[in-house]
Amino acid sequence: MAGHSKWANIRHKKAAVDAKRSNVWTRLIKEITVSARLGGGDAGLNPRLRLAIDKAADVNMPKDNVNRAIQRGIGFIESSNYEEVRYEGYGIGGVAIIIDTITDNRTRTVAEVRHALSKHGGNLGTDGSVSFLFNHVGQFLFLPGISEDELMEAVLEANADDVTTNINGGIEIICPPNNFIQVRNALKSRDFRAVLSGITMKPQTKIKVIGDDVVKLQKLLSVLENLDDVQEIYTNADIADQ
Q1: Where in the sequence is the domain holding 46, given as residue range(s)?
Q2: Which of 16, 35, 123, 164 has the most C-beta neighbours closer than 10 Å?
Q3: Angle CA 112–116–121, to nearest 5
Q4: CA 29 to chain centre
Q5: How far apart are CA 185 and CA 44, in angstroms?
Q6: Is 241 within the bounds of a domain?
Q7: Is 219 exposed, middle or buried, given 0-12, 13-18 or 19+ CB atoms closer than 10 A?
Q8: 141 phi and psi, to 5 degrees?
Q9: Is residue 10 domain-shared with residue 69, that is, in the same domain?
Q10: Contacts of 82 (CB under 8 A, 6+ apart)
Q11: pLDDT digits (tens, 9 = 90+) for 149-193
Q12: CA-based end-to-end distance of the chain
C-alpha cells in the first residue's frame, strides 16, 4: 500500500474518533465494565482493563466514573447485562467490515447494524465470513522522522513482532495483543509517541476504494460508528486521497 494512502487512512480514523467524542465516555464505561467482569477489577492483573483505564485517562474521564464502572463489572454495583458481540459484513466494492459491539440487547443491535449496512450499499455476513482476512495485533504508527533503528532498539526486549518503514518514512510496529502494554511502556520509557496505537484487527491485504465509493463508504462507516452499541469498526479499505 502506498505511503500516502496509509496516512490518509490514519486521518480518516482520527476524524472518526473525533466525530464520536461526545459519547466516548459511554463506550469506555462499557469497556471497563466488561473488562472488569471478564478479568477482574485489578488493573495490574488485567491487561485489558489497564488499557481501558488508560484510554479513559486520555480523554479526561473522572476517576470516580472509572471506579464505578469497575465496581459494576465485579458485581458490587448493579449493572446492565452487557455482552460482546461481533458482526461481520461487506461494504461498497466488497470491502470487508468487522463491527465490535457491547450490548444489553442483541436483537436491537443486530437490527441496527443490518439496517445501516443495507441502507448504505453493504450487507451483513455470517460469523467468520471476513474475520479470516484480518490479524489480531497490537499496532503503533509513527510519522516520518523517527529512526527505525532507535525504535527497534526500544522494543527489542518487549517482544514486538515487526518494525517496518513504509514508502514515505512512516514506521509501523506490530506486536501480539498481550504484549501491547509491554511494548507501549518500552516506547514510553524512551519518549517515543505514536501518532496512532491500539489493539486492532489489521487487514492482511487492502481493497482500494476510489471516487464516489469513498464518500459512500465513509457515510456507511459514520452511520455504524454513531450506533450506541458499536465499540470498534475495522475494515480492509484502502481509502484514496481526495
Answers
A1: 3-73
A2: 35
A3: 150
A4: 16
A5: 14
A6: no
A7: middle
A8: -120, 135
A9: yes
A10: 30, 33, 34, 37, 102, 103, 104
A11: 889 888 888 888 899 998 888 999 999 999 999 999 999 999 999
A12: 16
Question: Is 194 found in the same domain as 93?
Answer: no
In a domain, 60, yes or no: yes
Report pLDDT digits (tens) over 97-133.
Answer: 999 999 999 999 999 999 999 999 999 999 999 999 9
Are residues 218 and 106 part of one domain? yes
Can you name the residues that pair with 197 across neighbouring β-strands? 140
Domain harbouring 227, CATH code: 3.30.70.980
> Which amino acid type is present at position 168?
N
